[in-house]
Design a protein that fits this description.
Shape: globular
Strand content: 5-15%
Strand order of the largest sheet: 2-1-3-4
Distance between the termini: 13 Å
Radius of gyration: 20 Å
Largest sheet: 4 strands, parallel
Helix content: 25-40%
Structural class: mainly alpha
Number of strands: 4
Length: about 325
Amino acid sequence: MKWTWPFNGRAGNGQRKNGNGSDADRARPDFLCVGVHKGGTTWLYQQLDSHPDFWMPPLKELHYFDQLSRVQRPSSSRCRDERDRRFLESINRLSAKPYMDFEHYAQLFEPKGPLLSGDISPNYSTLTNKVIRRIVGYFPELKVIFLARDPVERVWSHLSMEVHHHQIESFDVTDIDEVNRNLLRRGLLLRSYPSTVVARWKHYVHPDRFRIYFFDDLQRNPTELRRSILDFLGADPDKPASRVPIEYNSWARMEKLLLTDKVRSHLAQFFKKELKTCAARLGGAARDWPARYGFSLLVFFWDLIDDIDLLSFCDWIS
C-alpha cells in the first residue's frame, strides 16, 4: 500500500505576519531542486554551499516531502556553527510530526537571514500531483530546478551506485534478465522518465520560475552551467566559490558497472520512446540523446503522436 503524508490542513502563502501586519521574516526556501538522481545534484549543493550569496542547510537532501521520518539520514551531518545546530534540532522535531507542516518547514530556513537557500532533494522527482500542488500553493514564489540526464546513462549510474553502497545485491550485468529484474523495480522506474517529472512540475510552477538544466552541460562546461543557475536563482555569478572547484567533482566518481554493448542496446530500446519524448519536450542537450543510440530524428515527431497519453504513465502514483 502506498504511504503518503497527511496534511495539517492549514492554508497560506508562505508568509507569516506579526502583530503590525507586516512580514515577520523571510523564512522560507527560495528554491527546490527536484532531481534527478545521478544528475549532478551533489555538485550543485557544493557550488551553492560555497557561494557567499547562499546559506545552505547542513544536509544536502532534506527529504521532507517524501517521507522524511522514514529516510535514513547520515549519522555525521555538517555542524559548522550555531545555525547548523539549530537547523538539525528543528528538522528532527519536524520529522517526528505525523503530518506535513508547511509553516514549520518554512521556518527551517530562518538561519539564512537575507541570503538565499533551498532544498536539494532528488526524491522530489517522485512526488505526486497533490503534494506538488500544495507545495507550490504555499510557496508561490518558489523557484524549481530540474537536472536532467540521458535515461540510459542515468539508470546505469543509479544501479552502479546501489550496488556500490550495497543497497541492492550484485548481479550479472551481462544477463538481460538480471538487468530487467533490477530495471523494472517501481522505485527505479519512477526516477527514470524525466519528461513525465518535468511535465508534472511544470503544470503547477509558473514558467518563469522553472528551469531545466542538463548533466551533459555539467560535463562539457560546468563554469557556464554554474553561471546560468546562479543567475536564475538571483545570485551573483561572478562571485567565486570557496572550498570547492567549479569543475564537476570527478574525484567522487565511483567505478561504474560494466556496460556491454548488448545491454546498452537493450536499455536504449527500453527507453526509446522516452529518449525521443525528451528530445522534443525538454530541448537543449536532450535533442542529442536519441542519435546516441542510432534512432532516427526524421520520424520521432511522428512517433510522439502515439505518445499523447505519456502523462498517464505515473497516474498510479498520484
